[in-house]
């Protein structure tokens, strides 16, 4: 396998998904032609839709390597909001994709807001109640107290761990992401503590906040830690000085700005990358 085959395949998938979300075209060729025009008009990138179709067929459909010039990899990464392909590769390897690539492992990444993937039979029922919490708690306690039986392998000082499973256990690729408070990872031996798991989130007008799915609050959706960490509404547009990594939506003459790509949670309109025209006419004007 090529050293960068997974990265290139994911890049092509992300570019196609972004183009699909930005156009009303439904056909494959229609989306690619829209992408060709957008790359040329907004980013001054020359790439024919037939060339991109070749990339997509080889890397995504056939899952086989195809040589793409480094300059084109950088250009497509810029379209996604990154500075270059190297920066894209540094951020795309999330827990969810790691599980799909290595189906025999459970990956736990503990950063600022830890997230955990557990087997689907615990997470597909949002109201599994105290029994589910006890089962999950016993999983952590067992790994804490019986190190001789199953010692977690520490990968780095950033608390990234891989828990090896028995050969007959498999992890489904369709798993849920659960917000786990930091102190649940380090349960004290003297007094084990089981805490609430936040599987949902809501938009508070400025950012996404983790919340328990049993809460009666309106607008609860499945938690997405990438959105929790990076998707924010820019409340003071006058602080924007560059189009880099800024997205906007314009609806009924109201323009709003955000720190990541996606959908405006309030009007459900797709966001667009900020352009020099929008910067000059709506911010620095």
Q: What's this, in brief?
A:
With 285 residues, this protein is α+β, with helices and mostly antiparallel strands.
3D structure, described in words:
This protein is of the alpha+beta class and 285 residues long. The chain folds into 3 domains: 5-92, no CATH class; 95-184, no CATH class; 231-285, no CATH class. It contains 10 helices and 11 strands. A 3-stranded antiparallel beta sheet has the order 1-4-3. Strands 7-6-8 form a 3-stranded antiparallel beta sheet. Mean pLDDT is 75; it is low at 104-117, 148-179 and 189-195.
Radius of gyration: 22 Å
Please write the string of helix (H) and strand (E) elements.
HHHHHHEEHHEEEEEEHEEEH
Oligomeric state of the chains in view: single chain
Q: Structural class, from secondary structure content? A: alpha+beta
The number of helical elements comes to 10
Q: How many domains is the backbone divided into?
A: 3
Shape category? globular
Poorly predicted regions: 104-117, 148-179, 189-195
User: Averaged pLDDT, please?
Assistant: 75
- Biggest sheet strand line-up: 1-4-3
Percent range of helical residues: 25-40%
* Euclidean distance between termini CA atoms: 51 Å
Main β-sheet description: 3 strands, antiparallel
Strand content: 5-15%
Secondary structure tally: strands: 11
